[in-house]
Design a protein that fits this description.
Blueprint (H helix, E strand, L loop, with lengths): L7 H19 L9 E5 L6 H4 L5 E5 L11 E5 L5 H4 L7 E6 L5 E6 L9 H13 L6 E5 L2 H6 L3 H4 L3 H7 L3 H6 L4 E4 L7 H11 L5 E4 L3 E6 L2 H23 L9 H11 L4
Parallel strand pairs: 7-8
Antiparallel strand pairs: 1-3, 1-6, 2-5, 3-4, 4-5, 6-9, 8-9
Helix pairs in contact: 4-9
The structure holds 1,3-dihydroxyacetonephosphate and zinc ion (ZN).
């Protein structure tokens, strides 16, 4: 028995998580248990789910998050592998509900898989998104090789230097990641400081932020769209590296070409 039985809409959202988890593994972005995904599934919760008893918890989130009080999330389990989640999302993740007060959660289905160690960042970001009325329901953290490599250089960590380079490698990147790539300086994985810095950077109007020397954190309406934003950015980083390894600095699209693209797609300048 699974919570997904006879729940077509909820199952289709979790199936998207499993599909993306498979892509992350295939791309080499998900070594061992690397990366995590959470999605806000509250809109697919019915009375049957609401009546489910807790199977583990309550646990402290580490923050008080008033906007997600009473919300429900699917979370990858800590220590679980994306390549396993791709086959079996409910065996490698669980559904949690946020208790009244917004400071604690309990696990309700299918089994007591403890959520990702990056839960403070994920839940604080969902709280931030709901608080500003955003339609975004998914957050994705992964370790894309070329984007992480960029963050090992001071130059690329400077505000929007990487964004401009990545946008100029191929027109799709600005079209499909129109807010660019925010930069968060190195902080301890799974810390509340990292969660707070992630929100500050998203609030500067990015959908995708880099965690220096660690990975990327992306938000979007659903997990497939969050993945797509990371995918186009990393593709650009690969084009840059390919040109450099052919022995030259890539020219990049010109300012006039970027301006033409921005007006054709209605993108910010
Ligand atoms: P979890 O296995 O706890 O999700 O951690 C993976 C990770 O990438 C931490 O940053
Ligand atoms: Zn990580």
């Amino acid at each position: 028995m699974s919570i997904l039985d006879n729940r077509r809409l909820l199952k289709s959202e979790i199936d998207k998580v499993a599909e993306v988890a498979g892509y992350l593994w295939e791309k080499g972005w998900a070594e061992r248990n690397g990366g995590n995904i959470t999605i806000n599934v509250t809109e697919w919760v019915d009375d049957g789910i609401r009546a489910l008893p807790s199977i583990a918890g309550p646990f402290e989130i580490g923050f008080t998050l008033p906007h997600i009080e009473g919300c429900w999330f699917y979370c990858k389990g800590t220590g679980k592998r994306m390549r396993d989640l791709a086959r079996d999302p409910m065996g490698n993740g669980s559904i949690i509900r946020i208790l009244p007060g917004g400071a604690r959660y309990e696990i309700v289905a299918d089994s007591p898989v403890v959520p990702t160690s990056e839960l403070p960042s994920h839940l604080a970001v969902h709280n931030y998104l709901l608080g500003k009325g955003s339609p975004y329901r998914a957050s994705l953290h992964t370790h894309p090789i070329e984007l992480v490599a960029l963050t090992h250089s001071r130059k690329w960590m400077e505000r929007d230097v990487a964004t401009r380079m990545l946008w100029s490698m191929i027109p799709e990147t600005k079209a499909f990641c129109p807010r660019g790539l925010g930069m968060v300086p190195y902080m301890m994985p799974s810390s509340n400081e990292l969660a707070e810095a992630t929100i500050r950077t998203l609030d500067e109007d990015y959908d995708v932020v880099m965690w220096e020397k660690h990975g990327v954190f992306a938000v979007d309406t659903d997990v497939m769209s969050a993945f797509d934003q990371v995918d186009v950015l990393n593709k650009s980083a690969q084009i840059y590296i390919a040109a450099r390894s052919m022995g030259f600095d890539p020219e990049g699209m010109s300012p006039a070409q970027m301006a033409e693209l921005s007006s054709a797609f209605g993108l910010p300048k």
